[in-house]
Write a structure and sequence with these properties.
homodimer; Ferritin; 11 helices
């Protein structure tokens, strides 16, 4: 804010750039990311019940542990910033609830596509937003991104299913498109309701539409890698 | 059984006695314990949704991680014994499903009582059965027992709730009795269906009824320690 005093200049620690986002916007963003990780964890454990056998049911639950570990990293950072993690997450609860209510998987493969796709889009999103953050938060996000257990497990199972029965390709591709559509919908809702958060997400001169197009393209390339169509 | 050899006289420590349980019975038992841990994990994550705020919801999910870690230890041991964990667990799935279907908590405190009580009774049970096992399995069970995160969290919240509002005591005590009743019911069903497993659980000369009475007494003492009645 002020450039007239030393205290203000050294305000935050590793010297924030002139355009560094304010503390409140960072708390919003970390709250959104933390809730995303917490709910990804819960969703995997719920959806694990769709597994064809107890071994795979347990495997998805075990893979989900990476997400709750990520939640803890983000929650710790929120507390460091003086924020209550529960309160920082609360504004985004309804968007996630409504997304999950409209995309409840009907079987094991749909559950895995949701895991794979959700994890991948979340990772792309993490990468995009981390660019605008300070050193410490960027490092935190790199640690979060390094966790790929659930995504690897899901990709492997989807590939095997597509190879074993080409007929599932169409059905799962359609399901993936629906997930993306619903996801874009909720992202627009969250952005419309929170200007401060949107500013930090899209960055200087960016627009939400451009960001969503970019995420969608990355997603389409990734679908191919597990044998699905765009 | 025999009093004629030193090995039998010191029955209880390392060296398996002549009466050491067969491999199949140990696999049954480890399958039962592994499924118990896996489902305790899932149940906590599901029931965490009943939490009054996102912070406590996350806390219960985080505490649940100890259970899935225990599941992994037991599953690894099953694999060491040449058994498939999924197959070893399958015979007990219906008993747990039916227990959970008849004891679905209606609110956060009921969920916590179920966590606390389930964890405690499971621990008592682990202790009882470990006596009949060989060294390696006893050590494994000690490691499993050392995990108390979920139970500690639940006990703390229940005590605080009882202190804040004495009126909840009666309701939660009744709920705890119902959980125990349903649990005994399912235990009897499992025992009746599997003689080999029952033999390893009750030990030489023991009966299931005596074991259940012993577990129930331990449970009653424990209820008092969180402010509930028998």
């Amino acid at each position: 804010m002020s450039e007239t005093t030393d205290a203000a200049a050294q305000n935050d620690d590793p010297a924030p750039a002139a355009s560094a986002p304010g503390r409140e916007a960072v708390i919003d963003l970390l709250g959104l990311l933390a809730l995303g990780e917490l709910l990804a964890f819960e969703r995997m454990v719920y959806d694990a019940r769709l597994a064809p056998d107890l071994g795979r049911r347990a495997a998805l639950s075990e893979a989900a542990v990476g997400e709750i570990r990520n939640y803890r990293l983000l929650a710790d950072r929120l507390q460091e910033l003086g924020a209550d993690p529960g309160e920082a997450m609360a504004p985004f609860k309804e968007a996630f609830r409504s997304f999950d209510a409209s995309t409840s998987p009907r079987d094991w493969l749909e559950a895995l596509v949701k895991v794979y796709l959700g994890d991948a889009v979340a990772d792309d999103f993490f990468r995009v937003v981390s660019a605008g953050l300070e050193e410490q938060d960027r490092t935190l996000i790199e640690t979060v991104l390094a966790e790929t257990g659930a995504s690897d497990l899901a990709a492997e199972e989807i590939r095997a299913a597509v190879e074993a029965d080409a007929a599932v390709t169409g059905r799962l591709s359609l399901w993936a498109r629906r997930l993306v559509g619903e996801g874009i919908n909720r992202a627009q809702g969250v952005a419309a309701a929170n200007e401060r958060l949107t500013a930090i997400i899209v960055g200087d001169g960016g627009t939400l539409d451009a960001l969503l197009r970019r995420l969608t393209r990355a997603h389409q390339d990734r679908m191919k890698s597990v044998g699905l169509n765009n």
